[in-house]
Structures are given as structure tokens and as C-alpha cells.
Design brief:
about 300 residues; alpha+beta; Alpha-Beta Plaits; about 30% helix; about 30% strand; disordered N terminus
Length: about 300
């Protein structure tokens, strides 16, 4: 696939294209690709395949990438940031879709990235799921649910979650998804510092905690709306080693509490930190304080 990159007024715009020039105008499919936070994350054990078994609850938040796909006479991909070809899950999702369906899905994709990379928010995985869902709509649902899930699992452990985008309990590598009747009665402030954390690096630093006592699923369902009670029961096993490597992330968590959060935690392998607040004004005040002290790549508030 030939590719090149050029600079637009808004920054890097990645371009990838092949085939003939577009001649047909068709209705575009527009879809939001939301970020997620991990409400707790336990690393249970390292597996023989070098992955890790985990327990976590994926929870969708307001911050989203924006994807637009339309049929075209050639393949095209555009984004407002520079994406490395082999890390572009949108193109990998397109390739998988074509291979599994036998459809030569010539489309133009335009991706507006709002979710930071290396942030523990699942932006790339959400983009991949959005591509699959949009292609399904454009080409008349050629894949059954099982086939779609199979492709999603091959693209990434948390991609299956983004096909449904509802709160879910995840085990295994993160691909074993169980929808959860769990809703947070809080405003979720999510901030991402300038630092990014590589997932492979985070896993190389973490020590599995082993499974003991209640599962994370049972802990959260028992706690319900007792958000302050999360402090003693809900942990992210990545925090300690990541905070040692990137002290600014730990400082943001401390400041989140200092600005009034009932509970705060790092999301995924970092670098984003989220806090639960009782009211929007409290969350907005905390965001303003954090922006005044730290260089942030993103700051977003999700309503209950």
C-alpha cells in the first residue's frame, strides 16, 4: 500500500491511498469511538503465552474519536495526527474485514483523534471496533456476531468491549467480556498528562497479585454507590510501578483527591487518571486546577 504524510494547518495529517480516483458520491457513515476507563485492574497471573490474566471493569466515557467512512473508488485514510502504519488499527480492521468477507471494501476513512495515544483509554481499540461496525453497516452486515467478535479479539484484547460499548466485566487477557448491570452515579473527570506509558513497558514492571477473596466484579456490585468505599477495595496493580517510573502520574492522582474527588485511580496501564465527583461544578473546578499545574493532553468530564 503506497503511503505518504503531509502537514495540514491543524498539524500532521496522515494520508494513505491506492487505486482509482473517487468518482461516486455516497452517504458517509459517521460513528463515535468512545474511550474507556478501567474501574479497578487486577493482574492475576502471567500465562504460558506471555500474556496476563486480568480482572477489570471497562466503563465507557464521553471522550471520543470521530470516524467517517464512505465507499470510494480507491482506498484512502486520513487522520489529524501522524499514525505509524503498523500501529494503525483502523487499516488492520479493514484488512481483516476484507479477508473474512471476500469483499474488496474500497473506502475513504477520515479519523479525528481526540483520545490521546499511550493513555490507558483504549483509543486505538475503539477506533478498530468503530471501523468494523461502520463496514458492517455499509456492506449489509456480512459478518455474524461470532465472526465479528473473532476479528475483534485478533485486533486486540479490549476491542470486543468496544463493539457493545456498555459497562462490562473483563477477564482472561481482557477479551472475555461479560456485560455488567453497573452504573456510576458520579461525574467522571479524566485527565491525561504529557507523558505516555507503553503497555509492554507497564507489563514488564508489574508483579501479578494473584486471585484472592472476592472478584473485582463482586466487589464493585457490593459497593454500589458507596464511592468513598472504593478507596479501600478497588486498586490498579499497574499504579505502583508506573508511579515510580512516572512520578507526575502519581502526583496527578494525589491532586485529584486534594481537589475533592471521592475516588481516583489510574486507568489501564496509564497515563490517564480519573476521579469521581459528586457534582459537575466540583469536577470542573478540579479540571481547572489540574490544567493550571500540569501539561495535559486531554481533560474530559462524563456525566452520570
Amino acid at each position: 500500500m503506497p503511503s505518504d504524510t503531509f502537514l495540514s494547518r491543524s498539524g500532521f495529517l496522515t494520508y494513505w491511498a491506492s487505486g482509482r480516483a473517487n468518482k461516486n458520491q455516497e452517504k458517509a457513515v459517521k460513528i463515535l469511538a468512545p474511550a474507556k476507563i478501567n474501574v479497578g485492574l487486577r493482574i492475576i497471573r502471567k500465562r504460558s503465552d506471555n500474556y496476563h490474566d486480568i480482572q477489570t471493569v471497562f466503563y465507557p466515557i464521553h471522550l471520543s474519536d470521530e470516524l467517517e467512512i464512505v465507499r470510494a473508488d480507491r482506498h484512502e485514510f486520513y487522520s489529524n495526527i501522524k499514525l505509524v502504519d503498523d500501529a494503525n488499527l483502523c487499516l488492520r480492521a479493514l484488512d481483516f474485514f476484507c479477508e473474512r468477507t471476500g469483499i474488496n471494501a474500497e473506502v475513504k476513512m477520515v479519523l479525528k483523534k481526540n483520545i490521546p495515544i499511550g493513555a490507558g483509554l483504549g483509543g486505538g481499540s475503539s477506533d478498530a471496533a468503530a471501523v468494523l461496525l461502520a463496514l458492517q453497516e455499509i456492506y449489509g452486515q456480512p459478518l455474524c456476531e461470532i465472526e465479528l467478535l473473532n476479528i475483534a479479539e485478533q485486533l486486540g484484547s479490549d476491542v470486543p468491549f468496544f463493539l457493545k460499548k456498555v459497562p462490562a466485566y473483563a477477564t482472561g487477557k481482557g477479551e472475555m467480556i461479560e456485560p455488567l448491570g453497573y452504573r456510576l452515579n458520579a461525574y467522571i473527570l479524566t485527565v491525561t498528562p504529557e507523558a505516555g506509558v507503553s503497555t509492554p513497558l507497564a507489563y514488564s514492571l508489574v508483579t501479578p497479585s494473584a486471585e484472592k477473596g472476592q472478584s473485582l466484579r463482586e466487589v464493585l456490585l457490593d459497593l454500589g454507590d458507596d464511592i468513598p468505599g472504593y478507596r479501600d477495595s478497588v486498586v490498579n496493580d499497574f499504579e505502583q510501578p508506573v508511579f515510580e517510573k512516572f512520578p507526575v502520574i502519581g502526583q496527578i492522582k494525589s491532586d485529584m483527591y486534594a481537589t475533592g474527588a471521592d475516588f481516583a485511580l489510574m486507568s489501564g496501564s496509564g497515563s490517564s487518571v480519573y476521579g469521581f465527583f459528586r457534582t459537575r461544578p466540583e469536577a470542573e473546578k478540579a479540571l481547572a486546577a489540574l490544567r493550571g499545574k500540569f501539561v495535559l493532553r486531554a481533560g474530559d468530564i462524563t456525566a452520570p
